[in-house]
Amino acid sequence: MRLTDAKQTIKYADKALMLAQKIGFKKGLADAYRVKGLGERYLGNGERAIDNYLLALAVFKELGSSIGEIRIYLNISSLYQEIDYDKCSEYLNMAKDQYKSANINDQNLLASIYLNFGNLNQLQKNYNKSLAYYSESYELIKKLNNPDLTVTVLQNLGVIYSTIGNKIKAKQYLYKALEQAKALDLNQSISQINFTLSEIFIAEENFKQAEASLTEGKAYTELVNNEDMRHNYQIASYQLELKRKNFEQALNYLQTIYKQDSINYKSRNSAALSLYQAKYRQEELSRKNEQIMLRQKYDRSIVIGTIILAAFLVLVIVLLFSNVKRKADTNKKLTELNTEISIQKDNLDRINHHLEEIIDERTKDLQLKNKKLSEYSSHLSHQVRGPIATLKGLMNLEQEGLVSQEECIQMMIKCVSEIDDKIIDMSDMLHNPQRGGF
């Protein structure tokens, strides 16, 4: 409806807005604000348009909708086209950068970006760049079956070709755009296309076609109630009458144009100032909203942190309780083990005491045996020494021939027997503890 009756656009946008608020449909809310902004723009209400655009932008950002943000940037750039090229370029570049960074593949959106860059370059008189952007946009749109955008890009191609002096191509594109605009009832586009055609016909001094385009264009301008287009048609009518040399009529148009220009100059300055003021207000509102959101985020973080801390404390308490219980069980087991160890220690002490008694007894026995062994050794040495001395004496006597050999042998046998008896007797005394001393 925005290209047919912008008032109806606002009417339907308001209905959509109320419904979206009622059911809490945020995307619908953002779209309703955007469309309402479009309607206000086509009615020439720049301040109200940007107010709605910025409200839509805030919601799209909250939703994280990159496509919604890009559309708003394009809408705001269009709003600045006639009054601030730098701002227009700034928002267009924001749209382009967002499109690239979000990795979006929306050919309709890309075609709109090219189209807006073409419009900006046309206004800046960069006609070759403008034509390149329009051509890229047209190639995309031909594949998309988007009738509204098709009309717009055909119209813009006609305007740019007219500006660079290629009137034949300009009329081809403009007639094609006019035909499709009429089929779609796009009154705003029909008004604009007829205006461009009238300029071409006036330049060619084709007064009949120029008058026909002016008449039709003025009628559609009244339908859309666009003050800017009314002013443009006043200029075109002045140029037609001047070319026809109807100077009196031309002067009348010129006086009307002069009055309108004075009013428009003031209103444009006022609109520009209002746009900046509205933008400033919205930026302030956005900053406040961001602060509120940050505060809410901080509060949420505090709540989450508190919950986590509480959960941690509960876990610590549970662990402490479990630890105390385990400690009690451990202490009980340790007590049982200590009791068992004490019993085993008592047993061990008794065993050690018994072993000590055994060792003392064995020691006394060994000491007694050692004493006997010492006595035995001394006694044996004493008892055996005598018979041995006798043997040695016999051997000396036999060598000197003082005794006969036979007598010597008998005496030696007697000494050996005596030694043997003494050794047996000593052995018996050692192995028989009940036997007395030597």
The low-confidence parts are none
What integer value in Å does the Rg equal? 63 Å
Q: What is the averaged pLDDT score? A: 82
Strand portion: under 5%
What would you say the CATH architecture of the domain at 1-104 is? Answer: Alpha Horseshoe
CATH top level of the domain at 1-104 is Mainly Alpha
Topology-level CATH name of the domain at 1-104: Serine Threonine Protein Phosphatase 5, Tetratricopeptide repeat
Q: Could you give the distance between the termini?
A: 150 Å
Work out the helicity level.
over 70%
Output the helix-strand order.
Answer: HHHHHHHHHHHHHH
- The outline comes out as rod-shaped
How many distinct helices? 14
Summarize the biggest pleated sheet.
Answer: none
By DSSP, the count of extended strands is 0
**CATH superfamily heading of the domain at 1-104:** Tetratricopeptide repeat domain
- Which class best fits the helix and strand makeup? mainly alpha
